[in-house]
C-alpha cells in the first residue's frame, strides 16, 4: 500500500457520522480495526430490545476484522461504546425494528447505514504484502484465519489451516475446490478445500425458542450471511515456486502468513504443477470438482489430465498397468474406448531395447461385442466437437487398422453385424496344452490330480507329437492298459486317473481343433504395431468356453513377451497393451491348481511388463474379485461409479475421493495414479471418440 494519506474513522467520529483525515494505519491489524470501526449500523432486532452485553469489545474477532467493503450492504458493526449501542438499540426497538436512521437523516430499510465514501476509503486499508487479487486472474475468496490455530505439519492430522470466506464468495465455494495462498516472497501455497463450516459470529445462543420462531417467520432468502462466520478447512498440497522461469512444486515446508488472501486457483499452469499433472501424455479426461469441470482463463478453459507417456520420469505408465472399475451404466466401456484410442494414435510410439521406436499394438478381449466398433467413426460427433478434440490433442475417429479375431467354436456363430471391422476366425490347437495343462482341466484339480494330468499329457504328446488332437487325447485316456500301467508303476493312482479323466471330458466340446487357422500361426495378425485386435467372446455358448479362449490367447502373448527364446519375434518386439474386459471372470483368486497357475502367469506379466513393453488394461465391475498378486501391480486406477461397498474399498483410493464414488454421474471418474499425479476427480469426454452403442 502506498504511503499516502487515507481517511479512516475513529470511534468518536464514527458515532457522529464524520470522518477525519490522517496517515494510513500504522499496521495491517490496525488497518482492519479502523476499517471495521467506520461502520455504525443497527439492523432489525426482532424480539430483542437491547444487546446482551455492555462491553464495547465483547464481539468476535471476525466481526471486528470484517472488511469494510461489506458495510454498504446488510452488515452490522461493532459498537464503539456500550452506551451508544444501548441508545441505538432502544431507538430501533421503539421504531418497530423496521429500519435505522442514518446520521444524514435517511432511512435504510435493509438495516444498513449509508456511509457515503467511507466504505471505498476503508477498502484501501489492507495488508501491505497482499493484494486483493494476489495471483494473476485468481479471485480472492477470503483470508487465512488464526482463531483456531495455524499450522502445517508432516503429520496431516496435526495440520491446522483454515480460511475465513467472505459473504459474497460463499455461494461458489465447494468442497474440493483448489485454492492458492501467496507467501510474501512470491511463492504460493497450493491447497484444496476439505471442510466447510458455519460458526457463530456473535456470542449469542441461537438454539432457543425465540431464535427458532424468528427463523421460522423469516423468508429463506432473508438469511443474513454476515451473522455467521463461514470457515473453510484447507489441505495443503504443494508449494509452488519459480526456478529460472519454470514453475515447480515441492512438499509443503512453510506456513502461510495470518490473514493472507486466499484466492481461487484459475491458472492452468499453477493447477497442473500443483497436482503434478504432466503437460503431455495419454488423455483421460478433464479435471473437475463435484462433477463440474475446473475452469481457467486460458483457451481452452478446461484442465486436461494426461498420463505420463515418456521415459523422462521412469517408464510410461501404460506398461505399469491400468485398472478401469465401474458399475453397470457408469460409462466404463465408453471411457475405456476413449483411452485405448489414445494409445493407438499414429503419433504415439515407444522405444524398444534395440533403440527402435515402435507403435503400440492393442489386443482387447471383448465379452459384449463392443470394442470392434472402434473401427468406425462416431456418427454422433459433430464438426465442432471434432475441432475441439483436435485443439486439445485428443485422438478421435474410427481406427482403420482394426481386426476382429473371432474364436471359432462348434455350434456357435459370430454375427458381427454392429461394426465394419475385418473378421478372421481362429481355433485353439490342442498342442497348446503341452505347455498349458490347465487348458484341459474342465473343473477344479487338486494338488495330486494336476501332476497326474501333466504326466498324461507328456506321454500323449510323446506318442502323437504336436499334431495330436483333443479327440485323440480322449481316446488315449480310454485305454485300460494305460491306466493299469501307470497305477502299477506308482506314477498315477487309478482313482486319480479316473478323476483326471472326468475333468478332461468336462471341457466344452468344440473348443479345440476347429476348422480355422490355429492362433499359434496368427502372431502377425494378433499383434500389429499401431493395430487394434479385438477378440469377441459374446457368441460363445458357455462361460468356460469364453475363459478357455481368453486365457489361451493371453498366455500366448505373455509367454512370448517374457521368454528369452520366443516363438514369435513379432510379439516379442512390439509394445503391447493387453485389454481384458470383465477381468474378474478370468483373474479371480480361487483355491485350485489351475487358478493359481493362471494368476502366477499374469503376476509375472505384471511384474516384468515395464521391461518387456507389456501393459495390462483391466476393466471390471467387481475389482474386489481380482486376485491380489495381480491387483497390487496396477499403478493407475480409473474408478467410475461403484455402488458396492466392498468394490469401493478394494480399489484403495484416498478416503476423500472414496466417499464420492457412489454419487458420481455417468462419465465422472476418480483417477489415482501415484506415480503420475495427486489423486483427482475427472469428467470424461461426453462424446465417444469412436462409434459406441447400437
TrEMBL record:
Ranges of compositional bias, category Acidic residues: 120-129
Domain Helicase HerA central intervals: 311-545
Region (Disordered): 1-32, 45-129
Residue spans of biased composition, Polar residues class: 10-26
Ranges of compositional bias, category Low complexity: 82-95
Highest rank taxon of the organism: Archaea
InterPro entries membership: HerA_central, P-loop_NTPase, T4SS_component
Coiled coil: none
SUPFAM superfamilies: P-loop containing nucleoside triphosphate hydrolases (SSF52540)
Protein name as it appears in the record: Helicase HerA central domain-containing protein
Amino acid at each position: 500500500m502506498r504511503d499516502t494519506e487515507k481517511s479512516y474513522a475513529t470511534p468518536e467520529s464514527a458515532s457522529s457520522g464524520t470522518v477525519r483525515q490522517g496517515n494510513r494505519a500504522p499496521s495491517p491489524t490496525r488497518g482492519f480495526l479502523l476499517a471495521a470501526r467506520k461502520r455504525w449500523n443497527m439492523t432489525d432486532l426482532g424480539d430483542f430490545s437491547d444487546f446482551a452485553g455492555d462491553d464495547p469489545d465483547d464481539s468476535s474477532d471476525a466481526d471486528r476484522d470484517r472488511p469494510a467493503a461489506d458495510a454498504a450492504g446488510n452488515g452490522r458493526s461493532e459498537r464503539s461504546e456500550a452506551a451508544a449501542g444501548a441508545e441505538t438499540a432502544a431507538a430501533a426497538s421503539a421504531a418497530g425494528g423496521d429500519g435505522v436512521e442514518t446520521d444524514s437523516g435517511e432511512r435504510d430499510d435493509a438495516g444498513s447505514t449509508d456511509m457515503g465514501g467511507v466504505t471505498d476509503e476503508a477498502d484501501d486499508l489492507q495488508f501491505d504484502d497482499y493484494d486483493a487479487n494476489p495471483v494473476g486472474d485468481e479471485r480472492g475468496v477470503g483470508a487465512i484465519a488464526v482463531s483456531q490455530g495455524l499450522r502445517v505439519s508432516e503429520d496431516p492430522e496435526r495440520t491446522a489451516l483454515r480460511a475465513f470466506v467472505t459473504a459474497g464468495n460463499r455461494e461458489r465455494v465447494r468442497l474440493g475446490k483448489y485454492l492458492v495462498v501467496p507467501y510474501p516472497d512470491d511463492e504460493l501455497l497450493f491447497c484444496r478445500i476439505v471442510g466447510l463450516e458455519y460458526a457463530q459470529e456473535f456470542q449469542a445462543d441461537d438454539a432457543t425458542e425465540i431464535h427458532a420462531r424468528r427463523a421460522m417467520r423469516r423468508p429463506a432468502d432473508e438469511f443474513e450471511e454476515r451473522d455467521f462466520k463461514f470457515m473453510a478447512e484447507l489441505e495443503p498440497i504443494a508449494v509452488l515456486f519459480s526456478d529460472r522461469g519454470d514453475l515447480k512444486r515441492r512438499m509443503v515446508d512453510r506456513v502461510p502468513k495470518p490473514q493472507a488472501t486466499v484466492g481461487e486457483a484459475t491458472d492452468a499452469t499453477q493447477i497442473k504443477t500443483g497436482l503434478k499433472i504432466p503437460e503431455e501424455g495419454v488423455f483421460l479426461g478433464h479435471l473437475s470438482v463435484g462433477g463440474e469441470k475446473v475452469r481457467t482463463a486460458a483457451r481452452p478453459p478446461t484442465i486436461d489430465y494426461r498420463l505420463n507417456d515418456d521415459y523422462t520420469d521412469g517408464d510410461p505408465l501404460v506398461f505399469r498397468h491400468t485398472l478401469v472399475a465401474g458399475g453397470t451404466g457408469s460409462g466404463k466401456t465408453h471411457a475405456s474406448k476413449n483411452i485405448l484410442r489414445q494409445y493407438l494414435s499414429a503419433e504415439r510410439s515407444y522405444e524398444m531395447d534395440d533403440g527402435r521406436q515402435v507403435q503400440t499394438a492393442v489386443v482387447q478381449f471383448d465379452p459384449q461385442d463392443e470394442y470392434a466398433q472402434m473401427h468406425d467413426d462416431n456418427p454422433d460427433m459433430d464438426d465442432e466437437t471434432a475441432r475441439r478434440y483436435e485443439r486439445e490433442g485428443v485422438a478421435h475417429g474410427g481406427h482403420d487398422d482394426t481386426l476382429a479375431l473371432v474364436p471359432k467354436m462348434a455350434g456357435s456363430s459370430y454375427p458381427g453385424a454392429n461394426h465394419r471391422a475385418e473378421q478372421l476366425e481362429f481355433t485353439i490347437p490342442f498342442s497348446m496344452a503341452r505347455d498349458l495343462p490347465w487348458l484341459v482341466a474342465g473343473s477344479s484339480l487338486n494338488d495330486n490330480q494336476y501332476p497326474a494330468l501333466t504326466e498324461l499329457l507328456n506321454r500323449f504328446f510323446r506318442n502323437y507329437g504336436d499334431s495330436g488332437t483333443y479327440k485323440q487325447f480322449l481316446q488315449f485316456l480310454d485305454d485300460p492298459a494305460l491306466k493299469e500301467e501307470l497305477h502299477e508303476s506308482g506314477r498315477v493312482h487309478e482313482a486319480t486317473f479316473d478323476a483326471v479323466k472326468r475333468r478332461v471330458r468336462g471341457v466344452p466340446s468344440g473348443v479345440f481343433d476347429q476348422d480355422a487357422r490355429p492362433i499359434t500361426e496368427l502372431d502377425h495378425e494378433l499383434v500389429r504395431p499401431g493395430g487394434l485386435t479385438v477378440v469377441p467372446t459374446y457368441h460363445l455358448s458357455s462361460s468356460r468356453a469364453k475363459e478357455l479362449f481368453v486365457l489361451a490367447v493371453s498366455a500366448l502373448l505373455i509367454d512370448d513377451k517374457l521368454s528369452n527364446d520366443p516363438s514369435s519375434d513379432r510379439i516379442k518386439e512390439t509394445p503391447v497393451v493387453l485389454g481384458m474386459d470383465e477381468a474378474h471372470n478370468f483373474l479371480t483368486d480361487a483355491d485350485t491348481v489351475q487358478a493359481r497357475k493362471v494368476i502366477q502367469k499374469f503376476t509375472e506379466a505384471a511384474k516384468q511388463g515395464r521391461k518387456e513393453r507389456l501393459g495390462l488394461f483391466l476393466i471390471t465391475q467387481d475389482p474386489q474379485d481380482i486376485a491380489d498378486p495381480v491387483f497390487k501391480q496396477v499403478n493407475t486406477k480409473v474408478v467410475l461409479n461403484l455402488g458396492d461397498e466392498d468394490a469401493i474399498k478394494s480399489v484403495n483410493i484416498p478416503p476423500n475421493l472414496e466417499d464420492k464414488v457412489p454419487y458420481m454421474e455417468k462419465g465422472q471418474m476418480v483417477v489415482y495414479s501415484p506415480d503420475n499425479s495427486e489423486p483427482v476427480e475427472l469428467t470424461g469426454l461426453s462424446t465417444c471418440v469412436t462409434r459406441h452403442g447400437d
